Amino acid sequence: MAVFKYLIRNKNEKGKGILTAYDQQEAEQILRDRRVTILKLESVSSAVTDSPYFNLRERTPFEQKYAWLLIHGNKVEQSLQQLAAMLSAGVPILNALQTIAGQCPHYLKRTYFCVANKLHDGRRLTETLHEEMPFLGQIVIGLIAAGEANGDIDRMCVYAADLMAKRRAIKSQVLQAMAYPTLVILLTIGIVCFLMWKVIPKIMKFLSNRSAALPGITQSLADVTHFLQNYGHYLLMLPVVVAVAIILLRKNEETALYVDRAALHLPLLGKAFRASANALWCRTLGILLESGINIISALEFTGQSLSNTFYRKELDEMKAVISQGHPLSTGLRVSEINRFAPFADSMILVGESTGRVGEGLLKVAEFSETNLQQRITLLTKMIEPALFVIVGGIVGFVYIAFFMGLMAASTGGR
């Protein structure tokens, strides 16, 4: 059915309003039956039914493969929150999906119309999400699957949206923690390269034309410059080589375990990585338990969602302990994770005594997120003076070396 707005004349009075009809012809007939003069009749456009993708059921292979890259995460979170609100208001899920699709950006719009149309064809929601939206991840789809099974999709969509938002925020904080030191290092390398390739060679050429012998500090500057000009490109390649080596090592399960465990003990960054991992696994597990998913499945989903191999291994061992009939607190206590998240042990024990384990884990997650933010702030405050010291030291060394050489040249070595 389409919606039309009209302007009519009834005797000497004008009137306006809206009506629904199959098409323009039917709308005109409805008004004629009222014995009025039609002054204006036009359809009201709909972002849903007027969309060229309203009947879309298949997307291109490229779009399906790279949907995770083409669709921004926060748009997905917003759409899940809208879906939950509409379902809780009693809107049928098919209409809700179509309405959300009409409001989404291009690629997400096409995705939701595909989901809605396959649902209209009789497919299950969870099955369709696995096909069309695998970028949601096993946890989100698992939550929606649980909601589909118990008729509580709206609440599960809220949990899923909250989980996605929190995980994205934590990952953003970790990237911020790593990006700032990386930027500082690159800036320092750039300054050194500029000095070594542009400034210092001219200084050394000027001093070499003098007959006096160069002082030790000036000669050191000349030696360092000569070394960097001949071998500096190898040093520039070193960070790339290290990054590639880490990526290759993480492709193997055993070596990845050592790499990820070592990352947790890095100076400065290690504590930030621990806080990030603790926030991720506690929040994920807490939300899954709060949503009603059993502890074994929740631990399995949580482990699959973590990128740190060490934490995944420890969660698998916790799952094995709990499978033998032990509580979650025992599984955590025998795990190495307990050393990195001692606060979690106390909160889980309290949660088990009150029947609110999920709520306790969410409290630990909040504590870890606050700790992560503090670590990032501390790192930022430490890096700024370090940059001044390093760059200032390099510039000062060049300055002193140049003037020492200039003084030696002006005095003839006396």
Largest sheet: 3 strands, antiparallel
List the total number of helices. Answer: 18
Q: Which structural class fits the helix and strand makeup?
A: mainly alpha
User: How many distinct beta strands?
Assistant: 3
The share of residues in helices is over 70%
Low-confidence stretches: none
Distance N to C terminus: 101 Å
User: CATH superfamily name of the largest domain?
Assistant: Type II secretion system (T2SS), domain F
Quaternary organisation of the protein chains: single chain
Write down the overall geometry. flat
Kindly report the CATH topology of the largest domain: Receptor-associated Protein
Rg calculated over all Cα atoms: 32 Å
What is the string of SSEs from the N terminus onward?
EEHEHHHHHHHHHHHHHHHHH
What value does the average pLDDT take?
84
CATH C-level of the largest domain: Mainly Alpha
Shape-level CATH architecture of the largest domain: Up-down Bundle
Strand order, sheet with most strands? 2-1-3
Domains (count): 3
Percent of residues in β-strands? 5-15%
